[in-house]
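[Meeting: bench + compute handoff]

Bench side (C.D.) handed over the final construct sequence. Compute side (W.E.) agreed to return the predicted structure before the next meeting so the bench team could plan truncations. Sequence as handed over:
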Amino acid sequence: MKPSKRIGSCIHRKRLPPRRQTVAELRELQRLTAAVVMRRLTSAHKTNPRWIDGGSTAQVVAGFIRPNDRMTSFERLELYNRQYWFRLLECLSEDYPGLRAVLGGKTFSNLAQAYLAECPSESFTMRNLGRSLVGFIESHSELVAPRGPLAIEMATLEWAHIEAFDNAAEVPLVLSDLANFDPQHVRLRLQPYLTLLRLEHPLDEFLIAVRRHQGLRHEASNAVGKRRKLQPMRWRSFRPSSTIHLAVHRHRDAVFYKRLTPAQFVLLSALQQHCPLEQALEQALVSCAGEKVTPATITKWFRNWSSLGWFCKVAATRIRRPSNLTRKR
């Protein structure tokens, strides 16, 4: 004899179609999820149990995330919250190894978390994560005290490194392109990936040593002087020295730190500010009177910079030199 069926066991309930969310509801869900995921972790690297208004984060999360048979709603979103922050902190650490070496691990971690809380990622690529870091350090000097000036210079150099590594490159200019143009009107443009820096600490060789020690992206330097041993150096070994003029650029898919003379720096800075070539040359000669600069020296500079691809195709007013021959009326 077959066991009797339970009353109602044969009744198939009609499955209702899922309720469709409106665009406004979807946006609210995205906003709430992002607010939890992007919120700063506690000192124990956990999701903050208190919500922005002081209430319970668990109650807020339970309102739009379902639990499962293993985790509560709060625990489910906590996974993403921790993964998000750990990933961002890892990216900053990889992009700013020199700053981390200068500040030390704990101070750098505190700085990175404070920075990400105030300047969250707003780009589709991690490459832009540290775009506002220099300005943040300048306005929150207490986070890096007493190494503020050194930290600002290092962060500036490392952002220039990021720009040099993957910023855009335009069609390079060759010197023959300028043969028939008047230097009073020609305006040379520098490549977008090229950054000119004035530093008070010898950080170029130090950053190369740090990055090589950590096995990061390859870069090179042609700084004047004997190369130091490739090993990390403590920040205490750095003291303000004579001003260092530096060009951070890319050549054959590698980042280079090229030291410049004061006259070279003034000349390139003037060109970067869209000054005509003749005016840029005058500024370089006037501001660096103590440096021996001849026409042959300037020609050598431009040949070197042109071979490195630093100049872009001329895009300003192109006025040719006047001809010596006049047309008869």
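W.E. noted at the follow-up: The CA atoms of residues 8 and 14 lie 13 Å apart. C.D. will use this when planning the next construct.
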